[in-house]
Amino acid sequence: MEYSQESRYLRPGEHTAGIRNLMLFYNGHYESHAGIWKKDDFVPYISYVDESGRPREWFFDGALFLAKWSFAFRGYEGYPVGDERSNNLEDWRWYLDKTFGEAGDLAELNKAVEDVAVQLNDPGYKMKVVIMIPYPDPSQHEFGELAGSGPLSFDYRRVAPEEAHRNKQLALKWYVGQLLKRWDEADLPRLELSALYWMNEAVHQSVPQEEELIGWTRDLIHDAGLKFFWIPYFNAENYGKWKELGFDAAVLQPNHFFTETGADRIQVTADMAAKAGMGLEMEVDYRVFGEDGAFRGKYLNYLNGGVEYGFAGDVFRGYYQDVKLLAAAAYNEDPAKRAIYDMTYRFVKGTYVSTNS
Q: Among 8, 122, 131, 318, which is most exposed with the fewest C-beta within 10 angstroms?
C-alpha cells in the first residue's frame, strides 16, 4: 500500500534536472587523499557491479561534486562552523583546478562513464553532474582581489552590509563564470552539467541580505540554463522556505546516522520533508561495518523508513556515504559488508524489501 504522503515529496523531473538519485562525491582535501577520484573509483557508483566487479547496469544517475575542506583545511561550508578558517579566493581557485584538471575528478568520471557505456552497450549515455558553489563566509574579511575589485571583505561587521553583499556577488559571479568557462573548454562528452549546489546547509536570518544573495545567485545560475540545488541539515534555519528562497530542488538531511537519535527520527524527517515538498538524504559512513551492528541498524532505519514512509518510491534523493564507503562495500569479501552495497542498489532501483539484518 502506498504511503499517503508519498505524493507530497519532491519528485524527480524538470526541477531536479531529471536526476532521481544524486550521489555526493566529496573531492576536497583529506590527509588520507580520499578526495582524489580516479576512473575505477567511480565505477561501482555509476554502475551496479557484481561480486567480480563487472558492471551490470547503470546505478546512480546524478553526481554532486562538493568539498568540505581545501588544501589549507579552510572550510567551504562556512558559517556557522565554528573552528574552521574561512575559505578565500585561493581555496576557490584550488577547487576549480582540482575538479577540472586534465587528470582531475571530472576527467576521471568521464573516462569511467565511457568505459562502462561500452560494457553496457549504451554508447549514448551521459552522467548528469552538479558542482558546488563555495559559501561566501560572512566572517571572511580578506577574501582576496579579483581584477579591478580591490580587497574583498564579506564581513558585514567590518564593512557596510551593502558593501559586503556586493563583494559576495563579485566573488560568486567570478566563480560561476570560471566554472562555466572551464566546463566549456573541458573534453567531457560523457557528462552533462545540470545544476549548481549551494554549499551552506542553512540560511541564516542574522546575515544581512542572505536571502537576497541566494535569489541573485539563482538568477545567475538560471541565466546559464542550469538548476539550483540545496541540502539543508535537519531542522536547519529556513529549510521549509527553500522554494521561496529560489532553489529548484532541495533534499532534507535526517542526521540520524550521526546523532544519538532513535528510528523515529526518520519518520519525523519524512514528515518534515513531505510538508515542505522536499526530497530526503540517505546517510551512511564506515561505521556501518562495525561488529556490534549498531550503525548497520541505523542505516537500515533509513532503508526501511523509505519503504514505510513512502520516500523509497518516486522521490528525489541525495546519498551521503562519507567519501567512498559504498565502493568499499561493493568490493568487500565479507558478505555482510557487501550486503550494504546490494541493499542500497535495491533501494535505488525500487526493489528493496524491509529487513532487520
A: 122
Rounded Cα distance, 261 and 293, in Å: 16
CA angle centred on 277, ends 26 and 210, rounded to 5°: 65
pLDDT digits (tens, 9 = 90+) for 313-322: 999 999 999 9
DSSP per position, 250-277:
EEE----TTTT--THHHHHHHHHHHHHT
Signed CA dihedral, 76, 258, 261, 84: sign only = negative
**Cα-based torsion angle of the residue sequence 190, 196, 202, 207 in order, rounded to the nearest 10 degrees:** 150
Total domain count for the chain?
1
Give the domain extent around 142.
Answer: 6-349
CA 146 and chain centroid, separation: 28
Answer yes or no: pTM beyond 0.90: yes
27 within domain boundaries = yes
Instruction: Estimate the crossing angle of helix 89-100 against helix 161-185, to 10 degrees.
Output: 20
Residue 339 identity (one-letter amino acid): A
